[in-house]
Amino acid sequence: MTPVIITLVLLTLAIILFATEKLPVDVIGIILVIALVLTQVLTVQEAVAGFGNDVVITIGGLFLLVGGLIRTGIVDVIGRRMHRLAGDNIFVLTALIMTTAAISASVLKNTTTTAMFLPVIIGLAAKAKIAPSKLLMPLAFGAILGGSCTLIGTSTNLAVSGAIVRYGQAPFSMFELTTVGVITFAVGMGYMLFFGRLMLPNRGAGESLTEQYEMREYVSELLVLPDSPLVGKTLDEANIGTELELNVLGIIRMGERIISPPPTERIQRRDSLIVEGKINDILRVKEAVGLEIKPDFMLNDVVLEGGNVELFEVMVMRDSRLVGQTLKTLRFRQNYDLTVLAINRHGDTFINKLSDVMLIFGDVLLVQGKRHGIEPLVADREVLLLEDLSTANFRIEKRKWAVAAFLLFLSLSLSKIVIGFDIPLAVCVLIGVMLLLATKTIRYAEMYPLIDFRLLVLIACMMSFGVAMEKTGTDVFLAGLIQHYFGAFGPSAILAGFFLLTVIMTQPMSNQAAALVVLPVAVKAAVGLGLNPRTFIVAVTYAASFSFITPLEPACVLVYTPGRYRFMDFVKIGTILTIIVFTVSMLLVPLFWPF
Fold first, then answer.
1. Most buried among 321, 440, 505, 579, by the most CB within 10 A?
2. Is the pTM of this model over 0.85?
3. How deeply is 278 buried, as exposed, middle or buried, from its count of CB atoms within 10 A (0-12, 13-18, 19+)?
4. Tens of pLDDT along 144-174?
């Protein structure tokens, strides 16, 4: 096979692997690089050159600067002020959320912004007695739109900026994308406020957690009869979980509640056991072991909470070690002293045989246990606690240093305009990081857990693939096909085609990968047609950021389950928003970056 055919085959296989999600995206990127070397498309030096790109350092440093803002509770302050300004007015609250998310995402990246504000907005919804579904999609969409406004707004912008140097183009300046990005955000927010908001579902308002997870038919109260063979046995010895397939959540003894009892707790006469299980298993307990169902049992959150035991909702994060594991393989209850009562995945609730459910990014777990059991998982970024974090412990005394480090980075990044000397962006980031470390706003031991190495590996690998497309002439080959079949339709039609192609590619692939795959073809097509390559570069960059049609974009995945959304909610609302931003981009991009 020729190098062009090999490159196209590998590209197709990569897209298939990205779409199936059977392997982590960074692993797919590494496999792609290995395949390019083994097929002799690239030398080893060319294949790993992407890892030495300064963009990788820049993005890694930005993770640490953002970590400083998170650790000092800046987001919590913003959330409280939003509620004070908007009160219970959903229109004003939506506008504030989208604006705040956009401003934050322009410097913090859209996925990070959504993750930070998610618990805050859930808390705001509870205070304002508004369904979370009315506020969380605007949060994600505002963050996505805001991320397109600056060079550091998304990792995609930075990756494209680093890649275009190969084509003789200057990297993006910090605010080159801002004007069109701000106009696009304003139009998008107008649509969400006056039309999209009216299409948002109204789900989850005022319901307790047990109601939201529809647990009533799975939880019952069983009375231990005096002659029951279970009397005197510990919960462990009684084997209620293995033999009757029931999970004991609590014991009511002489009017007092023992919530989440330990396995060593002994069963006594006239104990009432609060159990979770399938209705068929609950119905047959009377004949089995001398237990009687109490027909007047009423389930609510209070029944499952008491003392230090609470109910929590936690979301499995993208890079969590819980992903791909089951509760059984994790020994979740034994290791964390926490009981998972239910799992909600994109609107589908799992209650039976939870120990065998393979966890994925975005799963929301209803957990019963003590707060100190959940805190290590939250601190290690394994899960996100879906509640208002206003009582959390932040390094408030370091807040000024976190802000100072970020402002120092932004100031240095504008050095060429201010002092005429261009300080590389990677150096600007590292200087900001040094300030965080020197003031102990971020401690040395926290540095590496704050960095999303999976994203860095993916970007480095896809940059190497871009080298392969250029070296083999694959980009020229694909650009030639576009010139031949679509050149007669004019530059605007071809630009629109690349924009839509990139949007489509972001559905199965990450935004960064989609942009870096389309970019070389778009540049070569522009050169072949005698057009300005930067016009096409900017269009591809914007298109890679505007992923609203499905909840596959990480920012949308974060709000999918907590907002109780369905897949078609995103299709219905997001498709119209995509058409709107596409129209705005097609009008403005050629205006600011002429053909």
1. 505
2. no
3. middle
4. 999 999 998 888 999 999 889 888 898 998 8
